[in-house]
Specification:
Number of domains: 1
Helix content: 25-40%
Number of strands: 8
CATH architecture: 3-Layer(aba) Sandwich
Oligomer: single chain
Number of helices: 6
Mean pLDDT: 86
Low-confidence stretches: 7-31
CATH topology: Glutaredoxin
Structural class: alpha+beta
Length: 194
């Protein structure tokens, strides 16, 4: 019995050591800012900026066909997400983007811009509405150049801007935007807005 007890105790100690090591690594992540330290777990691919870049003024259309820009959302933290229907990671993250919007209805604005273009608008809008269950507004970039305007190296690309329109962080590729890691990151961005 004591051999089994020792084996279990050693396994437990090893597991505890591994957990503490992972927590130490995330706490000592390079870069000193709170936001950089919070870019872990589901948000590990976030590129957090020390010197925020200005927001793009690239135009896009809303569901009614009116020209919009990110400046229309100044005063709120904005998550710009550039996506397309032929991009599986883009489609995969849309429900989590909708959940993020539901979590922060008054302080964060998720602006998901489709680059499917006008010929595929009906398909894109129908798929978008089904996946987000109406939590997000539909936006379209008929020029199909929003990803280039924000310097995206692929799709999806998501850029987080503070209330003054300065880029805080970006993530290229799909992510889970409705998990504890994402919520902690947005809580910290909002706390800076104070």
């Amino acid at each position: 019995m004591s051999v089994v007890f020792r084996a279990v105790a050693l396994a437990g100690a090893a597991l505890l050591g591994a957990v503490l090591y992972v927590l130490f690594l995330s706490a000592s992540k390079p870069g000193g800012s709170v936001l950089q330290r919070l870019a872990v777990g589901d948000m590990a691919a976030l590129q957090v900026h020390d010197a925020p870049a200005p927001q793009t003024d690239h135009p896009f259309l809303d569901a009614e066909g009116q020209t919009r820009s990110l400046a229309d959302f100044r005063g709120q933290v904005v998550l710009l997400n550039v996506w397309a229907t032929n991009c599986p990671p883009c489609i995969g993250e849309l429900p989590s983007l909708a959940n993020l919007q539901r979590r922060y209805p008054d302080t964060v604005r998720v602006v998901a811009v489709s680059i499917d273009g006008v010929p595929r608008r009906a398909q894109a809008e129908a798929e978008f509405t089904a996946l987000t269950q109406g939590a997000l507004g539909f936006y379209l970039d008929p020029a199909k150049s929003m990803a280039f305007a924000v310097g995206g190296a692929g799709l999806p690309v998501s850029v987080i801007y503070d209330g003054q329109g300065r880029e805080v962080a970006r993530l290229v590729g799909g992510a889970e935007w409705d998990g504890a890691d994402a919520f902690a990151f947005f809580d910290a961005v909002l706390a800076r807005e104070g």
